[in-house]
Amino acid sequence: KAGVTQTPRYLIKTRGQQVTLSCSPISGHRSVSWYQQTPGQGLQFLFEYFSETQRNKGNFPGRFSGRQFSNSRSEMNVSTLELGDSALYLCASSSLGGSHSPLHFGNGTRLTVT
Amino acid sequence: AQTVTQSQPEMSVQEAETVTLSCTYDTSENNYYLFWYKQPPSRQMILVIRQEAYKQQNATENRFSVNFQKAAKSFSLKISDSQLGDTAMYFCAFIENLQGGSEKLVFGKGTKLTVNP
Q: Is the per-residue pLDDT at A41 higher than 70?
C-alpha cells in the first residue's frame, strides 16, 4: 500500500504570492490533517478534513485554507505569503482519527518564502 | 489547553546502550492517548509507540518501551540496544479531542537523539 504522498517536496516563493500544497492520503483513509513545523514554534495543527468537510481548524490566520476532494486527496493553500510562513508542512492521514487509528505522515513540503 | 513538555533538547548515546527520553504533559481529561513519534532526516514522522491512558500496562514495541506514570503525567521513552538508525528527532505527542469528533496531536518541542558508533 502506498504511503501518504505530498507534492511538491520543495517550494520557493516570494512574499505576497500564494501557494498550494497537495496531499494524497493512504488508500481508504478518510481523515487528512495538516501540521506546520518550524524551529521556533515546533509542530502546530492547521486543520483536519474528513469526508470533504473541515472538522476543525487550528489557530492560524484566514490566509491558510484547505479543502478535501471526494477521493480524499487534500490541498492546502496559503495566500499573501509572509516570511514567517517558511516551514515544513506535514500532512497526515488516518482511517478515522488519531486516537482510533494511527496517523500516517507524509515526507512534507518544505516551503521557503523570500 | 493541553501541553506537552520535553525537557531534553538533545541527547546522545553509544550504540548498543540504553537511553531514556523524558516527556511530561498536562491535561484535565481522564482518558486519552499518548504517542512517541520519530522524525529522521528524511522528515517523515514515524509512529514509534502508543499508550492508552486507561491501560496501566506500559506499551512495548521491540526495543522501544514506555514508562507511563499517569498520576505524575509522565511518559518517558526507553530505547534499548540503540542502533545508528535510531538517530532522529523524537517527539512526544498527546491527542486532544476537539469538537465535531475531530482530534489533533499536540506535540512537544522534540529531543534530538544521536547514536554514536
A: yes
Q: Are A47 and A61 in contact (CB under 8 A)?
A: no
Burial A20-58 (b: 16+ CB within 10 A, else e): ebebbbbeebbbbbbbbbeeeebbbbbbbbbeeebbbbb
Mutate to test the interface with A, among B103, B106, B107, B112 (most CBs of A within 10 A): B103
Q: How confident is the model at residue B66 (pLDDT cuts 50, 70, 90)?
A: very high
| CA separation for the pair A56, A99 (Å, rounded) | 16
- CA angle centred on B1, ends B78 and A56, rounded to 5°: 100
Name the residue in chain B with its Cα closest to that of A34.
Answer: B104
Give the number of beta-carbon pairs within 8 Å between A and B: 63
Over 80: is that where the pLDDT of B99 sits? no
